[in-house]
Design a protein that fits this description.
- This is Helix-turn-helix domain-containing protein.
- By secondary structure, the chain is α+β, with helices and mostly antiparallel strands.
- It has one domain (7-108): Winged helix-like DNA-binding domain superfamily/Winged helix DNA-binding domain (Arc Repressor Mutant, subunit A, Orthogonal Bundle), CATH 1.10.10.
- Helix content is 65%, strand content 13%.
- It contains five helices and three strands; from the N terminus they run H-H-E-H-H-E-E-H.
- A three-stranded antiparallel beta sheet has the order 1-3-2.
- Strand 2 and strand 3 form a beta hairpin.
- The longest helix has 34 residues, at 75-108.
- It is elongated, with a radius of gyration of 19 Å.
Length: 110
Amino acid sequence: MSTAVDDDLWSAIGDPTRRRLLDLLLADGTATATSLSEHLPVTRQAVAKHLAVLDRAGLVHAAAAGREKQYRVDETQLARAVAQLAEVGNTWDARLRRIKRIAETIERNR
């Protein structure tokens, strides 16, 4: 693959709560942990921990907003994740086409 897969990035995205947080941030532009927790069945503290994981992976960035932090998605890093996913998908599509050709060859030779 030409695009290196970033395990930390995919570990961060792999969690359903973190994916939901990304969805909410993409829809709203920016939000605080408190406002995000209103949309999820987890506490504000849990949301803050998930946001910290996303921040370490570079998927979100925070800016001080009074007593809280205002989070936004890093679209460049998200685009990087999309590119990696597309690359993995293309790789597997090619592998499956090769397996199909082998199976068809075996079937023809029977």
